[in-house]
Structures are given as structure tokens and as C-alpha cells.
């Protein structure tokens, strides 16, 4: 896609700090460096996000993830890591070419917040929602 910054990085039109590349995926350091080593893993095929990704592309992309995460952890010495994928603007996606963030974490209370709220579950509602989702998976 002509205006996609990640497509331009993949094509070599924009410089990047590449950490991995094969015929189908590329990984490079995020210019924001939320933490030291913050890396993006992208498919070379332009696809908006996981919601529009084929099973083949997803299989290829996510198959590379463990090897890349282990290499990043070893190279940085980070004891932990967040692996994050945002899909659409409301969820925080700002570049509309599928990508996975690997964010090394070095210490607790580092100012990075990823929070989930908890409350007493409504098991009946959860069961109904699970049934609805299952029907869509099988559709």
C-alpha cells in the first residue's frame, strides 16, 4: 500500500533498525522505544490487522513470535515481556498494517500500565456470550 509506513520500511524506502527478516515477515525496533528493545513484528503482506488476516498469514506471523521473543529477552536481559496486538483505533492501533509489539519489561512499577478490571462474574451471561462466540467461530 503506497502510504503505509510499514510497507515502506519493508521495501527499504524508509530506514529501520531491523532485527529479523525472512521471506514473509520482518521485525524491527519501534522508533518510540517504550522500553529498551521495543520491537515490532510485521507480515510483509499488507493487511490491516489480525481481524482481516488470513489463517496462513497469521500462522506465519505468530510462528516467528516465540523465537523473536526469546532472542529479545536474551539480548536485552529483560526478565519479562508484554506481547501486544492492537486492532482498530479504539483499541490503540495507530498504524494500519498488522503488527505485534514486543515490549521488554525490566522492573515492576516502571510507569507502563496495562490494567484489567475485575468484578464478580455473571456466569449465566458468560455462558450465553461464550455460546454466541462459539457459533461465530464455527460459521
TrEMBL record:
Sequence intervals crossing the membrane: none
Active-site residue list: 99
GO molecular function, one term: catalytic activity
Placement of sequence motif Histidine triad motif: 97-101
The protein, known as: Histidine triad (HIT) family protein
HIT domain sequence ranges: 5-113
Alphabetized InterPro entries for the sequence: HINT, Histidine_triad_HIT, HIT-like, HIT-like_sf
GO biological process, alphabetically ordered: nucleotide metabolic process
Stored Pfam families: HIT (PF01230)
